Amino acid sequence: MSTVQIDKTIDVRGMACPGPLMNLIGAIRQGQVGQVFEVLSSDEGSKTDIPAWVAKAKHELVEVNQDSGYAHFIVRKAR
Amino acid sequence: MALSARDSLLSPPSVSAPKLVAENSWQMEENLMIDEQDKPLSLVMFSGTDDKLTAAAVLAVGAAAMGRPVNLFLQYYALDAFRAGKVNADHALSPEATAAQAPVIRGHKGQHWSDLLRQAREVGEVNIQACALSMDMFGIGRDDLDPIVDGIEGVAAFIASASDGQVVFI
Fold first, then answer.
1. Do A54 and B5 lie within an 8 Å CB cutoff?
2. Catalytic positions of A, written as ranges
3. Which of A35, A75, B144, B157 could lock onto A7 through a cystine, CB 3.0 to 4.6 A?
4. Which residue did the predictor score with more confidence, B15 or B151?
5. Where along chain B do its domains lie?
6. Model pTM score
7. A24-54: per-residue pLDDT in tens?
8. DSSP per residue over B17-75, as a string?
């Protein structure tokens, strides 16, 4: 389990690609630098999309944890 | 399974192209999100069926999220789907959709292509232009188009906006 303090959880389980990524982008835009966001997504595309976007936008992918039927993506807004 | 950020598939690009001058605060915010000015992705939207419009819109929103300017050039049946009041109508499916696939496609939880295009515009730079030739062919005027369409342009202007980025025909 993660020991990182989560500021906001975005539960988009059941949402289709690219919805979970778009929800993360929206939350990060509205958030403060340093805040940590957790996305819960059952979309397979999120496993490639979220790491790719986080790297491109230069935020920090803190961790990815697979749960049963969905994954947790923990992202820190870096700037 | 835990992956660290270092395991991410993409490493940050090492070269930054010169930034475009932001024209308004919204664009300034976007430039903070993605520093590099990447080559545009330009989609020629020809087909007017909901499946192909959705496929094009998914490409558009993905490219916009990844920091690439997106140009859409609406021709023929795709242009018809962007008429005011017709965007949310049933635009049928491509002929290759089988009787078994059609209800699966229609029942999918994914978002409507027009909503995907609005999202693309929220996260990036999206330019939607109607093909002047198709407008003329179908007798469509500017006021007949949905407000999501930015304007009308000729093919040379579209190619100019595509510059050295890819052009995809859908």
1. yes
2. 17
3. A35
4. B151
5. 44-169
6. 0.81
7. 999 999 999 999 999 999 999 999 999 999 9
8. PPPPPPSSHHHHHHHHH--S-PPPEEEEE---SHHHHHHHHHHHHHHHHTT--EEEEE-
* ipTM of the prediction: 0.85
Note the CATH architecture for domain B44-169. Answer: 3-Layer(aba) Sandwich (3.40)
Q: Which domains does chain A have, with CATH numbers?
A: 8-76 (3.30.110.40)
Query: 10 Å Cβ neighbour count for A73?
Result: 26
Measured between its terminal Cα atoms, the distance across chain B in Å is 38
Which pLDDT score is estimated for A3? 80
Q: Is B58 on the interface with A (CB under 8 A)?
A: yes
Other beta carbons within 10 Å of A21: 29
B24 touching A (Cβ < 8 Å):
no
Report d(CA A18, CA A52) in Å as an integer.
Answer: 13
Residue A20 contacts residue A43 (beta carbons within 8 Å): yes
Which residue type is seen at B51? D
| pLDDT value of position B6 | 40
Tokens of B112: 């409507």
